[in-house]
């Protein structure tokens, strides 16, 4: 066994691999809309496909997600890194991030919230569960419709960890 010493759990979690980054878009029952950069994203079920996003209650999108029945998850490529950074650092209370980033908001096929045309993958999710988990609330959404560019590849998808945006590098091992 490797030698280990006890550390602060917060610091140990920094050893966790990078998170995928998505642009989550939501429209609420008041006619508002917002897009937020989310790096707390996880697959909770393969069949049916259920994805979860962790949102801080301090975020503008939190209130919108509380009121909404759905949201879209949009997977950006590296060419959108500036827009991803912008959407993660500005509040939808103050600016229309769709407009500021020049995003083409495309009507969804099966949900109210829009999808972002510039992203290589669009996942339309119906909210199925809400889980309080410390400083974030997880919203689990069942993917009810998905569209993907023909050449979309997860090696082109943005990831984020510890202040850095990344794309996949070399494949170290295949299953």
Key descriptive features of the protein:
Pnp Oxidase, Chain A; 175 residues; 4 helices; globular; three-stranded antiparallel beta sheet; alpha+beta
Describe it for me?
With 175 residues, the chain is α+β, with helices and mostly antiparallel strands. The protein has a single domain (19-149), classed as Electron Transport, Fmn-binding Protein, Chain A (Pnp Oxidase, Chain A), CATH 2.30.110. Helix content is 15%, strand content 38%. The protein contains four helices and twelve strands; from the N terminus they run H-E-E-E-E-E-H-E-H-H-E-E-E-E-E-E. Strand 9 (121-133) and strand 10 form a beta hairpin. The radius of gyration is 17 Å and the shape is globular. The relative contact order is 0.21.
State the helicity in percent bands.
10-25%
Question: How are the strands ordered across the major sheet?
Answer: 3-2-6-9-10-5-4
Write the CATH homologous superfamily.
Electron Transport, Fmn-binding Protein, Chain A
What is the mean pLDDT?
87
- Sum up the overall morphology in one term: globular
Counted by DSSP, the helix tally is 4
CATH fold-level assignment: Pnp Oxidase, Chain A
Which structural category do the helix and sheet elements fall into? alpha+beta
Q: CATH class, please?
A: Mainly Beta
Number of strands: 12
Low-confidence runs (pLDDT<50, min 5 residues)?
A: 170-175
Count the domains.
1
